[in-house]
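Just scan my protein:

. . .
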Amino acid sequence: MKYDVVIIGAGQAGLSMGYFLKKSNLSFLLLDKSASIGESWKERYDSLTLFTPRSNSSLPGFKLDGIEKIYPTKDEMAEYLSTYTTKFSLPVKHNTAVYGLTKLDDTFKIMTNQGEFLAQNVVIATGPFQNPQIPQFSKTLSEDILQMHSSEYKNPKQLKNGSVLVVGGGNSGAQIAVELSKERDVYLSVGHKMRFIPMDIGNKSVFWYLDKLGLYRANVNSVIGRLVKKQSDPIFGFELKLLLKNGTIKLKPRTTSMENDAFKFEDGTKLKVENVIWSTGFKSDYSWIDISNVIDQNGFPFQERGVTPVKGLFFLGLPWQYSRGSALIQGVGFDAEYLFNYMIEQ
């Protein structure tokens, strides 16, 4: 069978696309390597709470239950995505890992561990969190020091006794550092100046204000969008800021190398710890795409608002695909609707 659309990935991006396709007469299928919907959320660390409130954490057509200004947990999001899939009867084929994508004439061929699938259109919705990005010098670290990427971290019980260095100053690194500081010495290594903004102002989420000011949906090519994109992401909330101020968590500059199992920092100082958590982000892997003019020399897709130079091939769920909100749960719905309308008009 040749589908009108095959969506690769059944996370929030893929499900959003499925929601709009369900409104059409197009045949479509979602392929996902996981065993169940929401699995990637379930695998995150136990204490993970979103920094967007419920009012900004819903997909198209179905609100996340609960008090809108309360921040959902990762398990609530996993359950919500599962319910969303069932509610709209979205066709998902699980345990299906894609390892190849080619195009011949007007037909895409998707190669998977479950066989081949043919499609007129393909939406790649695998998201930005694919392969952990860890510095090469981590390989020189002694086995006496426990190291893991933040995607492997679940709770403090995983760690050895003793101090811990969290490398990376994003919101995940901030939440993990705060959690660990309750029972051990914590050092946080960050290569840029951190900016902190409140979760709420008055009785409204900061995202309500960001939306009203035009920052949330400012497109990547606008003056506002370009200015926002140049800045590092802010840390939401002031808990980490207070712990840094009172010395509970000790701030270190960028980690640059290792020397005799001591971490070396940009200012020349060194530190020995029993544990290190690399909260250093992820890198995308599109090596399985065997189609010209799709991926640039740096590994990023050629795309404008998700539309590639290859007819019928689209991306969804990329950071700054169109706006700051593109990487967030609610924002991916806006991008999905745009791609759906574009696809229908072709």
About this structure: The chain has two domains: 2-130+284-345, 133-195+232-278. Helices lie at 12-21, 39-42, 74-87, 171-180, 206-212, 223-230, 239-245, 329-345. The CA atoms of residues 33 and 95 lie 4 Å apart.
